[in-house]
Amino acid sequence: MRTKPLVYALSAVAVVLGALFLISTISSPSLDPLIFARDLVTSILAIVLGLLAPVLIRKFAAE
């Protein structure tokens, strides 16, 4: 089964949504520091995992 195109597509979606969420969080931050930190961590994790997924699929894929 060819999962690489699916992984690349989902990774691109994760990076784009993470970036949009990060821009939204920075442009109108929450007054509660815990909610602000949660939003920052969520958006940064989405970006990082979106960038790491293609690398990991290449590393662990058995072709």
Short note summarizing the structure:
Keywords: Membrane, Transmembrane, Transmembrane helix. The chain has 63 residues and is an all-alpha fold.
Keyphrases for this structure?
63 residues, mainly alpha, 2 helices, 83% helix
Structure in words:
The protein is mainly alpha-helical and 63 residues long. The chain has a domain of 35 residues. The protein has two helices and no strands. α1 runs antiparallel to α2. The radius of gyration is 15 Å and the shape is elongated. It starts with a helix and ends with a helix. The mean pLDDT is 91.
Structural class of the helix and strand makeup? mainly alpha
Q: What level of helicity do the residues show? A: over 70%
Task: Round the Cα radius of gyration to an integer and report it.
Answer: 15 Å
Poorly predicted regions are none
Mean pLDDT: 91
Straight-line distance between termini: 11 Å
Described by its quaternary structure, the protein is single chain
Task: Please report which band the strand proportion falls in: under 5%, 5-15%, 15-25%, 25-35%, 35-45% or over 45%.
Answer: under 5%
User: Helix segment count?
Assistant: 2
How would you sum up the global shape? elongated
Largest sheet: none
SSE order in H/E notation? Answer: HH
Record field, number of beta strands: 0
Keywords: Membrane, Transmembrane, Transmembrane helix
Secondary-structure blueprint of this entry?
Blueprint lengths: L3 H24 L5 H28 L3
